[in-house]
Amino acid sequence: MTDPRACANLPEVVAGCATLCGNDSQEQRMRVHFHGAAGEVTGSMHLVEAAGRRILIDCGLIQGSPDAEARNFAAFSFDAAAIDALVLSHAHIDHVGRVPRLLMDGFRGPIHAQRATADLLPIMLMDSASLQEGEAERANRRRRPNQPRAMPLYTREDVRDVFPRVRALPYGERGEILPGVELAFRDAGHILGSAIVELWAEGRKLVFSGALGMKGTPILRDP
Q1: What are the sequence ranges of the domains in the chain?
Q2: Are 81 and 107 in contact (CB under 8 A)?
Q3: Kind of pairing between the strands at 111-114 and 85-87
Q4: How many CB atoms lie within 10 A of CB 125?
Q5: CB-based burial label for 104 (10 Å; 0-12, 13-18, 19+)
């Protein structure tokens, strides 16, 4: 989910793509492509093009009806191998659940997450993989001889490939994650590690709210 305050001043929004131009030059721009959680709640996925780099924010699982969940098996609508970095807003599965698929399709960059999100990510993805494997196994027990074997979206072995790429960051620390691109996380108060994502590039700042929590939630700071 994108911060509506950031969207309010976008000069161009066409077919799921927004262009943010600098005031002094049309060459200074950031482009944002919405590949998930647009017109629906789950499957958060947003591609930012800035400073000659491609940064994916979230890579979430689509949830809901069987038809909706079948879309998780479809190819990404962008080249996964061309993504320079992945940034995760928090560890809920509709924001991180397709990260293993991204690696299976060729992504080889770093994965930036707040420290608590980095701690929760193995738990969430291993649990998701276990469910995927179990569903495939049950489907294969029921399948007829002329039906193809069901395959899991990814396995626990696929999930293990994710962990070496994770870069844990604290709240409030602004740093360069790619040449010309800086990142900071602010506490979103949704779950442990949930973050408002702030990106700077080419003289512009882009804010993704992720999922904001409610005030007064035990053990969590108010967003």
Answers
A1: 4-117+166-208
A2: yes
A3: parallel
A4: 24
A5: middle
- Asked if the model's pLDDT at residue 8 lies above 50, the reply is no
Token code pair at residue 88? 């995760």
> What CATH number is given for 4-117+166-208 in this structure?
3.60.15.10
Digit-coded pLDDT (tens) for 84-128: 999 999 999 999 999 999 999 999 999 999 999 999 999 999 999
Question: What pLDDT shows up at residue 9?
Answer: 42
Nearest 5°: phi and psi at 23?
A: -75, -25
Burial code of 129-142, b = ≥16 C-beta within 10 A, e = fewer? beebbeebeeeeee
Percent of the chain with pLDDT over 90: 78
**Residues with Cβ within 8 Å of residue 47, at least 6 apart in sequence:** 32, 33, 35, 54, 55, 56, 57, 78, 83
pLDDT in tens, 132-158: 999 999 999 999 999 999 999 999 999
pTM: 0.86
Give the helix ranges, DSSP H, for the chain.
4-7, 66-70, 93-96, 99-104, 115-142, 156-160
Strand partners, 16: none
What residue has token string 């999930």?
Answer: 159
Beta carbons within 10 angstroms of residue 179's beta carbon: 10
Q: How far apart are CA 138 and CA 77, in angstroms?
A: 30
CA angle 165, 166, 167 (to 5 degrees): 115
Q: How many helices (H) and strands (E) does the chain have?
A: 6, 12
